[in-house]
Amino acid sequence: MKKTCDQKERENPHIPLSTFQYPLSNTHYPKMKRIGAHVSIAGGIENAPLNAGKIGAKAFAMFTKNQRQWKAPALSPASVEQFRRNCADHGFEPRHILPHDSYLINLGSPEKEKLERSREAFNEEMIRVERLGLTMLNFHPGSHLNGLRPDECLRLIADSINKALEQSENVTAVIENTAGQGSNLGFRFEQLAALIDMTEDKTRIGICLDTCHLHASGYDMGNAEAAKTVFNEFDRTVGMRFLRGMHLNDARHPAGSRLDRHASLGKGTIGLDTFRFIVSSLDFEEIPLILETPDSDIWKEEIAILYSFTGN
Ligand SMILES: [Zn+2]
Ligand SMILES: [Zn+2]
Fold first, then answer.
1. Is it the case that residue 98 has pLDDT exceeding 80?
2. Which member of 34, 213, 244, 276 is catalytic?
3. pLDDT (tens digit, 9 = 90+) per residue, 119-167?
């Protein structure tokens, strides 16, 4: 049975959910591009919004815990409170913040034990996200590891998503398209559409498109015209209404390589023309546009370049 907010507060008396508000949403200012980067949580999750602020970001992504470990200590109430305050101080709203799950999780694993472990870890991440007052969790669908047919693996992933959505009331599961490396699924729009189709609550399922992964999986993003064609195909097959965020990465390898190797903007096979098109298009306003480019020392510069294309 679903719990009301009041019930939840009573169960977690240390987290004063109702005493702290994020700034109200976009009624007070015009829509704009929300460009940022996947920032570090070293020293505590509350540092993520500060790290994002330092590089001129208006959105950010982060891991909810050490992404290479299964277990993490629960978030302390002080850390949650500070995280929320730092977000509010920098003007970050939940819809501009795109947490990413652990790389260890495989929601379509053919091995029963690993599947269970992954589902447990993913559910825990959903709860962490909700405690932070956030509304999205970004994840890679999963890999069949040649132990299942792709359609069987997609069914498992969808079951994992349905179970995870039961763990929270407000968090949307945001599936990231993949490069199609190895046996990773989610590299074709048809696969993303199938996952949405099998998700019971369509109001809490979304997509994050990674430009490097698009290009690597064979959706040519090598110039603005090509990118437009890709987004039109995405709209026809999946629907732009499901787009909750993007990862803006150039690619080290040519279109169709199926290799997941990110490059700094303008230094790969996609090129600045495509990124200029994305950040000047009205289709991508108010959703997190996140850099996962390899040189974090130039994120500030990359964000400034992108903003110079948008006019805001
Ligand atoms: Zn990712
Ligand atoms: Zn990505």
1. yes
2. 213
3. 999 999 999 999 999 999 999 999 999 999 999 999 999 999 999 999 8
User: What's the CATH code of the domain at 88?
Assistant: 3.20.20.150
The reported pTM is 0.91
Catalytic member of 210, 220, 250, 302: 210
Rg, C-alpha atoms of the chain: 19
Are 6 and 24 in contact, with CB atoms under 8 Å apart? no
Domain that holds residue 86: 29-310
User: Does the pLDDT at position 169 exceed 50?
Assistant: yes
- Is residue 50 situated within a structural domain? yes
**Residue 4, domain member (yes or no):** no
Q: Is residue 208 part of a domain?
A: yes
Overall domain count for the chain? 1
d(CA 2, CA 76): 24
Q: How many residues does the chain have?
A: 312
- Report the pLDDT value the prediction gives residue 30, as an integer from 0 to 100: 76
Q: Which residues surround ligand 2, an ion (CB under 5 A)?
A: 210, 247, 292
Type of residue found at 239: G
Residue 170, pLDDT score: 94
